[in-house]
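Sample pair:
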Amino acid sequence: MKCLVTGGAGFIGSHLCDSLLAAGHSVVALDSLITGSRENVSHLAGNPHFQFMEHNVVEDLPDSIGPIQAIFHFASPASPPKYQAYPLDTLLANTVGTHKLLMKAKDWGAIFLYASTSEVYGNPLEHPQKETYWGNVNPNGPRSCYDEAKRCGEAWVATYVRNYNLDARIVRIFNTYGPRMDIDDGRVITNFIKQILRQEPLTIYGSGDQTRSFCFVTDLVEGIMALFSHPKMKGEVVNLGTSEEKTVKQIASMLSKIARYKGELVYKPLPEDDPVRRKPDLTKAKKMLGFKPQVALTQGLTKTLSYFKKRT
């Protein structure tokens, strides 16, 4: 298949490009480079089945791109500091950009896979979070430019499935980590790694007892590929991540042990609307896709730390 990956120079998008090429597909990667990096796809420059174009999905696609058999819409800032720095770009990529790409998918008869997020659940009152949970989201808080944009993007996708019989699927991505993350993206793992490499105290926001479930990027992309490849997932919404729940303090301790770092912890106030608990219910992914993450957290953190050490 000829595949289009928006956000293709981003953290997850670039790994998805790798997997699609490895599976025998050709890939056109688009990225505005607001938060993506050409370096993430530089190793693909000589591949005859790969093409990179700097392009903002809010604008019309160049005519030279089509026709496409599968569209993966991953274009969007994704970490709180980044989407709060670029709130309009985040809103537009997931609303206007999603609509424009859905129109193209309809014209081309393409499969459409939308990268949504666990942020659609907000600060959840249900734990773990099932795909049927509607969420607990502040519609106009500091995170709403991302949370509500993704919810709106899902509504666009669902409308095209119902009204135009489009073969579209939605993946709700939970916390993901690994090589090619932006060390300045403000996420907990990259924050800790940056501070460890600089020999600075580790910053804990809030009590540190808030939880996340961290999935290594290769496991996530394997799940995305399974969702894309399955012939009977039209219109489905699927959580992807890991069910291994850890507190922020536990992550700090694990990274400190791996790095043999003995720095102190510094506590700062918890940002507004920051979720207290986050863990996916993976029943659907396991049953329908056979999804089972393979990379243990200690192993993944070791790989990620090694990646950033080599870059310093």
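The domain at 2-178+214-243+278-293 is CATH 3.40.50.720 (Rossmann fold).
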